[in-house]
Amino acid sequence: MPMELASLTDCIRPQLQAVQERFAGELHSDLPCVNVLVKYVSRFHGKMLRPCLVLLWGKACAKAGELSNSHVTIATVVEMVHMATLVHDDVLDEAELRRKGATINHLRGNEAAVLLGDFLISHSYHLCSSLESQFASRLIARTTNEVCEGELLQIDNRNNLNLDEETYLKIIDRKTASLTAACCLLGAHISCADETVLRKAETFGRALGMAFQIQDDILDIIGDARDVGKTLGIDIEKVKLTLPVIHFLENAPSEHRQLMRSLLQSRDADKLEKIRNLILPSPSIAYAREFAQRYVTQARQAVSKLPPTEARQTLDTMAEFSVNRPM
To answer: What is the overall mean pLDDT for the chain?
Structure first.
């Protein structure tokens, strides 16, 4: 296991602190009820992966590694967008646990959660518009559209037991990888990186996001909620097929495929445990891990040509971290 992400980011620690302060300041309201919800959702900051990507790519590409106020602004914007997606996802998934605590929808209901997510999104656009260049605003708008399209495509394929890998990859590319790609591209762009480096930044971010989501989908089946810190088994419960299950349904012995289909469509209270016991002895989990590892290799290749700095080394290590998170 690589060291915890938080211990990797010493080179951007002051800027990460500034992001947290900007996040709280921008979202402050004269209404106490809003501030209570904002304070609670701030618990979801977690590893702050997306702000880290903005800042690290900015630092890796900037002259003398100097970060600007614009880097902090964009890092705050992407954290707001990400937080909004988490809050809305928990509503869609009817999740009760996030970062080892209760979700907003579980505490305050779906209405409050949906509106809080909207509040975060609107503030992210407001903050983004403070930058002179419109590049960031346009990219954030395009990316949030892609995230929504990915979620809609996934919802459209609920209960589709014939979902193929191509469609699954299209879903996670839009709902997860598009935002991580935008984070890296924005960090490098603000540092005035050339077109070649910008393409590498986007490639790194997209590959990292794909690997991260595949690992997340693996953990949803075989992870431990106490370690992962959120409600697990949601994909199984909502019959949203992910890579391990897709591979199993295409490659397992016919009787096992039939049992998997029956379990997915059942309302058995022990459905997750039975599916876990069915899929673990198969090659499907290993297949998904190897698939994710290929994206890690792609990400590492994209960052390998940057100047040898602490920021570059941290990005390289983060690529491995994406598939070596707690089980």
So the answer is: 91
